[in-house]
Structures are given as C-alpha cells and as structure tokens.
C-alpha cells in the first residue's frame, strides 16, 4: 500500500473504486503476511466474482480505497529501470575509457547490463501491445455509449421517455463517458512514454545515419554532365552543307 493503514479490515464490506471514480466492487478481505504486513486485497466484483490485487495497486484517497491499474504500475517501473540501467552502462564505458577498471571486468558487466536492457525492452514492447488493446477497448466502449445516448435522445423525441427517466439515464451515460475518456487519455499518455523510452537510444545514433546523405547531394550534379553534348548535336548538319558545295566545283572541272 502507498500509505499504511492502522486497521485495514475497517474497509471490509466497503466499496472500492478505480482512479476514475468507477465502482469496482466491495472489499472482501486482505492478504496478510505472518509479520502482519498487508500483501494484497480480495475484491468482490459486481458479477459475484472474487479477484485479488497486489498491495502496490491500493492507495487511499479522501478516506476511500482506490485501485490503480496494473498497466500504470508496470509502465512506471519500466520508465525508472530502463534509464537507470542505460546510465549505468554509459558510466561503465566512461570508466573503461579512463582505465579505471580492467577490460575483462567491463565485458562481464556490460553483457549483464545489455542483457537486462534487452529484457526490459521486450517487456516494454509487450506492455505497449497491451496498452493498445486497452485503448481499443475504450474506443469500443465510447462508441457504445454514444450509441446509447443517440437512442436515448430518439426515445425522448418521440415521447416514449419522460423527463425524470431521461435525466437519470443521461446522467449515467455522461458519467460513463467521462470515466472512459479519462482512462483513454491516461492510456495514450502511457503509450507515448513507452514509445519515447524505446526510441531513446535511436536519437543517439541519428548523426551516424545523416552522415551518408552528404555525398548523395552531389550525385544529381554528376547526372547533369551528360547533357553537355546536347548543343554540339545542333552543329552536326553543317558538315553535309560543305560537302554539297564541293560537288558542283568538281563537276565544272
């Protein structure tokens, strides 16, 4: 838990919500270690299903328990771990250049850092795919809620829905749209962070890719060189004219 609770079992039977104010279910119990530390929480969902969540996902907001998404926690961990290992590897390179560590030690540590980075990059790519799936789910839910809103307006327009029922239904749909749009915005921000994290090292290699472009700018000038003989071809008809002048001179002799 992000904040210690003196007696967490006081929350048993109470509602637990997500970060967007949507009710997830009721607190059924907690996972407690032999030393008394809260290690997780059991939640009864609206459909009667019981699920457990880690203690890292639980936080207190205005006296209420709030459940954070797993994707957020994983993305936050990756955003901290990848830059840290990358900086350590850079520091290792500088140390070996300054001859402060033996080369054989560099090889072992560098391979360790590189292996860890590759694994974390794979985790980030897999997490990005999961984020894309969640964004797609949000888009489908937004589409469904807009469809529900349109049908609600139609029923009101033809007089099949009274004022109170319309206002209640409208409030439910608008609340749903507010929550899912906020969730989608968070997911898109997560995807952007993960993308920047994966592309971070490519910016260092960018100058190397720009270097070969310099000679390519001169190649068009070389292709224009063969066009120089074009004006010479305009003088080609002149020799035949000289030949025709010489033929009548021979005939007079």
Layout of helices and strands:
Elements: E1 15-18, E2 23-32, E3 38-45, E4 50-54, E5 58-61, E6 64-67, H1 70-97, H2 103-157, H3 163-199, H4 202-210, H5 213-216, H6 219-223, H7 230-233, H8 238-252
Could you please describe the fold and organization of this structure?
The protein is α+β, with helices and mostly antiparallel strands. The chain has 2 domains: 13-68, PRC-barrel domain (SH3 type barrels); 72-201. The protein is 62% helix and 14% strand. The chain has helices at 70-97, 103-157, 163-199, 202-210, 213-216, 219-223, 230-233, 238-252; strands spanning 15-18, 23-32, 38-45, 50-54, 58-61, 64-67. Strands 4-3-2-1-6-5 form a 6-stranded mixed sheet, with no helix packed on it. Helix 1 packs parallel to helix 3 (163-199).
SS summary, helix count: 8
- The dominant shape is elongated
Structural class: alpha+beta
Spans of at least 5 consecutive residues whose pLDDT stays below 50 are: 202-253
**Largest sheet, spatial ordering of strands:** 4-3-2-1-6-5
The rounded Rg comes to: 36 Å
Number of domains: 2
Q: What is the residue-averaged pLDDT?
A: 81
Fraction of helical residues = 55-70%
Question: What is the element string, with H for helices and E for strands?
Answer: EEEEEEHHHHHHHH
Beta-strand percent range: 5-15%
**Can you count the beta strands?**
6
Ends distance: 121 Å
Largest sheet: number of strands, sense, barrel closure = 6 strands, mixed
């Amino acid at each position: 838990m992000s904040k210690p609770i003196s007696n967490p079992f006081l929350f048993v039977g109470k509602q637990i919500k997500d970060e967007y104010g949507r009710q997830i279910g009721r607190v059924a119990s907690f996972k407690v270690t032999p030393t008394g530390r809260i290690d997780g929480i059991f939640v009864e969902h609206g459909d009667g299903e019981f699920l457990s969540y880690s203690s890292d996902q639980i936080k207190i907001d205005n006296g209420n328990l709030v459940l954070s998404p797993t994707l957020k926690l994983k993305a936050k961990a990756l955003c901290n771990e990848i830059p840290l290992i990358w900086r350590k590897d850079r520091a290792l390179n500088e140390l070996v250049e300054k001859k402060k560590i033996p080369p054989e030690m560099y090889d072992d540590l560098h391979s360790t850092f590189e292996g860890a980075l590759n694994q974390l990059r794979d985790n980030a790519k897999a997490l990005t795919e999961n984020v894309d799936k969640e964004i797609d789910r949000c888009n489908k839910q937004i589409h469904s809620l807009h469809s529900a809103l349109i049908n609600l307006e139609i029923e009101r327009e033809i007089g099949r829905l009274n004022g109170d029922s319309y206002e209640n239904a409208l409030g439910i749909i608008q609340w749903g749209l507010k929550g899912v749009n906020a969730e989608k915005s968070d997911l898109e921000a997560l995807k952007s962070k993960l993308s920047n994290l994966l592309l971070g090292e490519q910016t260092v290699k960018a100058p190397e890719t720009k270097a070969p472009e310099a000679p390519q700018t001169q190649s068009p000038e070389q292709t224009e060189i063969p066009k120089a003989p074009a004006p010479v071809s305009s003088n080609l008809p002149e020799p035949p004219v000289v030949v025709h002048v010489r033929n009548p001179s021979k005939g007079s002799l």
